[in-house]
Amino acid sequence: MLTTGVEHVPKGNNCLDAAKACNLDDTCKKYRSAYITPCTTSMSNEVCNRRKCHKALRQFFDKVPAKHSYGMLFCSCRDIACTERRRQTIVPVCSYEEREKPNCLTLQDSCKTNYICRSRLADFFTNCQPESRSASSCLKENYADCLLAYSGLIGTVMTPNYIDSSSLSVAPWCDCNNSGNDLEECFKFLNFFKDNTCLKNAIQAFGNGSDVTVWQPALPVQTTTATTTTAFRVKNKPLGPAGSENEIPTHVLPPCANLQAQKLKSNVSGSTHLCLSDRDYEKNGLAGASSHITTKSMAAPPTCGLSPLLVLVVTALSTFLSLSLAETS
To answer: Based on the structure, what is the number of domains in the chain?
Structure first.
């Protein structure tokens, strides 16, 4: 009889298979070995180098392709041997467990003092937000964002892990003892990990391969409003310059449409004389480039030369005045 809470999947140890697949991939093998060493080697009194262990774990999940890193962390299991291997993926004796459990709100405060932990915890709250009315049970309807945010916490003081070998419930190493008047707030924080249907569904969907289209990263949608978190970065894809994800692309627009795009973005009026001429546009090497209108290019209208007709008029007037003065004298 299967243990309650363990997923029904075909026979075999999927977590063992995932570990074997990692060893066959040079990148996965390299970064796995890089965290196994500091997370298992004792320094003194059987205490590991927790700081180096956490740093190496962050590199593993940041640099190893999802099919391997997620394959080891979110593999589906049918028996205790498999679920225990899954729980041991991050070497919890070093990266996760401590002699005493701190209060969860105290741990949260400690996380907020570190910019990496703080931003990744914010990503987790945003991307794994449950929603009972959603088909996926996720507010964002995207399992990939949730799994990425969850794995991003591993290697911080908020490192979560499976709490036992019989379910998909996870939690950071903390409890709500000594919460005082903040007991309700503490339970709310802890249960966001332990009883999060969005996260559980995301883990199960990845492990079973039951809904691949939901956990795969979605294409970024361009918008004129700023986003509140970073997630939502696609794994292994570098982020562009700050704010670039909200820019209106102008490389496919005609030269003078740049100003129109800027007006749409800023809701300010402008005059058409600020547009670059086609000749200046090509001369400055902007044709076909992914450029955006900037304040520098809007600082002053382009310098224009005198037209041939105006030159003739000025020359004629000058000659006429010279002849008139000669006759008078």
So the answer is: 2
Q: Can you list the alpha helix ranges (DSSP code H) found in 41-160?
A: 50-63, 66-73, 80-87, 92-95, 104-112, 115-127, 143-153
**Which residue bears the tokens 């945010």?**
149
pLDDT for the residue numbered 291? 33
CA distance 287 to 280: 10
| Cβ neighbours around 205 below 10 Å, total | 21
Distances (CA, A) of 49 to 78, 110, 328: 33, 19, 102
Query: How many CB atoms within 10 Å of residue 220?
Result: 12
3-class state of residue 236 by DSSP: coil
The structure tokens listed for 15 are 């977590």
Residue 85 within any structural domain of the chain = yes
Indicate whether 129 and 53 sit together in one domain.
no
Question: Does residue 70 sit in helix, strand or coil?
Answer: helix
Report which of 48, 30, 29 is spatially closest to residue 39, judged by C-alpha positions. 48
Domain span holding position 33: 11-97
Q: Is the pTM of this model over 0.90?
A: no
CB proximity list for 165: less than 8 A, separation 6 or greater: 3, 80, 83, 84, 87
DSSP letter for 48, please.
E
Q: What is the pLDDT of residues 281-295, one digit of tens each?
A: 333 333 333 333 333
* Token pair recorded at residue 141: 């309807």
> How far apart are alpha carbons 53 and 267 in whole angstroms?
50
Q: Which amino acid is at 206?
A: F
